[in-house]
Write a structure and sequence with these properties.
With 248 residues, the chain is of the alpha+beta class. The protein has 8 helices and 10 strands. One of its GO terms (molecular function) is transferase activity.
Amino acid sequence: MDEVKVVVAHSERATLRVGDVFLKVDADQARIDVEVEAMALAPVPTPEVLWRKPSVLAIAALPGTALGRLGEPSTASPAAWAAAGAAIRKLHEAPLPPWPGRRRRDPDELAAELDGECELLVTNGILPADLVARNRQVAEAAIRPWTPVFTHGDLQVDHVFVDGDEVTGIIDWSEAGRGDALFDLATFTLGHEEHLDDVIAGYGTDVELDVVHAWWSLRSLLGVRWLVEHGFDAFAPGCEVDVLRSRM
């Protein structure tokens, strides 16, 4: 009998693996609905949906392995990273999904959220003031008007699977919707700056590097406190706090 492996678990959702089946349990049914619809619309390989019931989604495992993991060096080839960039470009060029996206915020709202989070990081003693101030300055370039595209919304590097130099699938679509293309690229390369050129080569168009760098800082600033409060280690080597330190 296959054992049950907890892939990730916190108060909002959990993912379990039993053999070649992943069970996603989510307190927010809307996230499951978005995930299923996004996978049906996305013009890139996605996992097979086996069944769904209220609060639970069962999907089949993808062939291959994750392209990398945050905090660990990636052993994937430059060609694999470029192939991922090409897949991301294909997604961004697809017709917009009919829903707005969970992460869609106007620049003023995003700036206000960021300022509030920066204040909490300092007053709660989570990060030093100079580190927060410098990254808040870098993050400013991401707070601008942008043209919405079909985005994954949570395109962490371990959500992209490859076999050799071929992308076999992209998982975890619950945050998909209309969003900023450079947010996807920044999320994908967070902690893997050395592979950004390969990704851009596969993406095949000019990319505003200062905005990608800004999203690295912005995403990390917004994420550190949540990660700490939910039992994740944002201070581990190569993770969010190291990303912030690299901007100093």
